[in-house]
Design a protein that fits this description.
Layout (H helix, E strand, L loop, with lengths): L6 H4 L7 H7 L5 H19 L13 H6 L17 H27 L5 H4 L8 H11 L4 H14 L3 H5 L1
Helix pairs in contact: 5-7, 5-8, 7-8
């Protein structure tokens, strides 16, 4: 981009402006940033929902694991459309665990009449974990319908039929 500057600023001496520094930066490889985002979301879900026995890096193949340790400006080989069935199975189990833990947390917060969901998750106002799991399913190459069906089954299992019908 062309930056027009006023004549008064041309003679100013000092450090380089933030705009000039930003323009000198290398462009990032956006799919690599998305890949990092998926890992961050997985780690946050594990932490927030207290999921035990989940190994986050097992959700990625060797190309995906190697891409985590590269510079965001480098163009890396990311996982292709053909995935190992074992990795897909682990991903599916993880997403179903997230949905189950979210429904269990929701039920336990609703049985405690004094504690609302906003008080239970104060920094996550409006966060819907099952919807997040369905969105994450797209990135992890798992069927969204499978995650949504599991969500409905969990709602019925915990006696929340009115939400299951929705």
């Amino acid at each position: 981009p062309v930056l027009d500057t006023e004549d008064a600023w041309v003679s100013v001496e000092g450090p380089v402006s933030i705009v000039e520094l930003a323009l000198e930066q290398k462009r990032i490889h956006y799919p690599l940033v998305e890949h990092q985002f998926v890992l961050c979301t997985v780690l946050y879900a594990i932490m927030r929902l207290s999921l035990k026995g989940v190994k986050p890096l097992s959700l990625f193949d060797s190309k995906g694991k190697n891409a985590f340790f590269k510079d965001l400006t480098s163009i890396q080989l990311l996982p292709s459309g053909d995935m190992d069935p074992n990795v897909l199975s682990i991903r599916q189990q993880f997403l179903l665990k997230v949905v189950s833990a979210a429904v269990q947390t929701l039920c336990s917060s609703q049985t405690d009449k004094e504690v609302s969901e906003e008080e239970y998750f104060p920094f996550e106002k409006g966060k819907n974990w099952p919807t997040l799991a369905a969105d994450l399913a797209q990135y992890l190459q798992i069927s969204e319908d499978l995650v949504r069906r599991h969500y409905v089954c969990e709602l019925y299992n915990y006696g929340m039929d009115h939400l299951g019908e929705e």
